[in-house]
Structures are given as C-alpha cells and as structure tokens.
Write a structure and sequence with these properties.
mainly alpha; 2 helices
Length: 71
C-alpha cells in the first residue's frame, strides 16, 4: 500500500508561482471553506450565464404542476 507524504509549509517558505496551488496549514483549516468556495465560484461562473436546457425546463414545469395538485 502506498504511503501519502504530506508537507506542511513553514512560515519562511514561499508559495509556488502557480496561484491555483494551495496547501493549508493546520491552523488555516478554518479558511479552507472560503477558499474552496472562491475557487468553485471562479470555475463555474459561466454556468449561470448559459441557458437552461429545454428538457430540464420541461421536467421542472412537470414537477411544479404535480406539486400543485392536491393529494
């Protein structure tokens, strides 16, 4: 079984020039959700500008109509 090697950066080490690289220190764990959210929003920002596929609209309308009907 392969072993995973983890390297925690020291305060005097510099981050690599690749700005997509991030290795949190244990004390930075509270900042991780915000960092991940920022990266995900940047990666998928164009999704909200794309049109919703017709089939998905049809399915959502059918679901809404079904929910309106009394049981």
């Amino acid at each position: 079984m392969a072993q995973l090697k983890v390297h925690y950066m020291h305060e005097d080490e510099e981050l690599p020039s690749d700005d997509n690289w991030y290795k949190p220190k244990p004390q930075d764990a509270s900042a991780l959700p915000a960092h991940l959210g920022q990266k995900l929003r940047a990666k998928f920002a164009d999704v909200e500008t794309k049109p919703v596929p017709d089939r998905l609209v049809e399915l959502l309308e059918a679901l809404a109509a079904k929910e309106k009907k009394p049981a």
